Amino acid sequence: MTQDPLQPRPVRDSQSEMNEIVLPNDANPLGALLGGRLMHWIDLAGALAAHRHSRQYTVTASIDHMDFLVPVAVGDLVILRSSVNRAFRTSMEVGVKAWVESYIHDTRKHVSSAYLTFVAVDAAGHHLQVPAVIPETDDERRRYEDAGRRREHRRAEFERHRRNAR
To answer: The domain 9-164 is classified under which CATH number: 1.25.40.340, 3.40.50.720, 1.20.120.140, 3.10.129.10?
Structure first.
């Protein structure tokens, strides 16, 4: 028996973790991780969670503000954790948090966090409906509610930019 593809799913079903060792090719001439490389990894980690939740192809629609809080050196380990905070009709907000771990110094520090919006699509690029998210913990419920507020803010910004582009 096939499960209903739109049956709501708990946040835990989308939780993903990705690890990357920073190599010289990932760094600037000072030996620090390139911001663009970290952004790429955050996008990939977010896509993992979106794919797990929707079980569809997904594309990145937007990424919210990002700050780079601490430098990351060649040889450090970057740990990225992601999960779907909330699903709407065809889109999902995914939260990604990145840490740097130095196994030489036995330290772990928060590097960056981001909220990304992914849209489920078919092979032709048509939007597909996604299942709802079931938040189970207090933290998941807070992130679920916060995602709704962020969505309204994104929509208002999008409309403002659209009006100004005319």
So the answer is: 3.10.129.10
